[in-house]
Amino acid sequence: MTIRSSGVSAIAAGILCVSSLAQASDDATPEWVNTLKNMGKVYSDENNPIVQSVKLFGRAHGQWNFSDGDSAGESFSGSGEELRRLRAGASVNFLNGFKALGRVNLEEGGFGDTELGFDSWDELYVAYGQENWFGFDSVSIGYGRYKLLFGGEEHQSSKRIKTIERSAINNRFGSRRPTGAVINAEKDGVEYILGIWSREPDPKRWSGWNEGVAIQGSATFDALNGEWILDFVYADDADSDDTIFDYDWAGSVTYNRDFDWGGLLTNVTLSQAGDVDPLGIVILPTYDIVPEKLEAAFRYQWANSSADSGVPRSSSSRGIRRVARDADLPTGSGDNYHALYAGLNYYIAGDNVKLMSGVEYETIQSDDADDELDGVSIWVAARVYF
After folding, report:
1. Which residue did the predictor score with more confidence, 138 or 173?
2. Does domain 3-385 correspond to CATH entry 2.30.30.140?
């Protein structure tokens, strides 16, 4: 038995075993759950002037999908398992204000492959922060490789997302790890982000500054019984061949609201990328079937572009487009994209251990029938983090 062929199966089997233990326990919070949630907190002493805390963390996300559809008038179907995320890292708070964090991606394979090995740095930065600084309630200033927070789905960690994959519009502008300087500040309940990012890609280390600069601004605040997130990135980089930011600018408005029955995320994204202007809408409600245990998640996506080849699409590395690619068929390119998703999330130990399943219908429409793609994907996933 090899890691390459059994990684996702082992994760799923482990979680099912843990699920059985959880169901057999009479305790409201079994001891193994507390152990899992706290095992990474290896040291904490606020009175130590040198090192205040040390934390280890990791996550393992395995998944499988089967897709069936039509591309350019030809039918296809196929499946694949994937070690979607395998990350490990540590953070250290020291010298009463400094924080250093490093986290690596250890999945080398991709769709249909569960091979392990160092792939890239997910995040690697050093920051310094204080309360009541420069007129703000709190401020931190950092430098390094960060996760770019753009769009409501990307502001939410992959540990806690409600669907197995984020939306196409999110994947078009989020899911990036630039190097740069970032300021996080809070004042009167409003959280601000200002980022100055290198456009140069380098997954193995901090990037250089030879490809120009992108600017990010974000604000998060409460209004109208919910949370609003406003994001904007100016990159002026749609024509570059070697860049993290393959667009000129993008703006996003997100509204999150909790209800007695569940929650609702809505997002609108506008952008310009050279001679096209991709835009998208995401509506994502959730419903608590059994509170804190079983949840239904739904999502509607619509994306559009002024050019026939510029519509944001589902990720080419997984799902229906990857299955079409494996069948040597076009992966879709048009000016309209629609997708409907329905899934169930079973929480064994909150977001620390959960099982996910979903069904998604996607269609890409084009003036040229040879560019059209549509079909259905069935997803199952197992997710663990500490």
Report:
1. 138
2. no
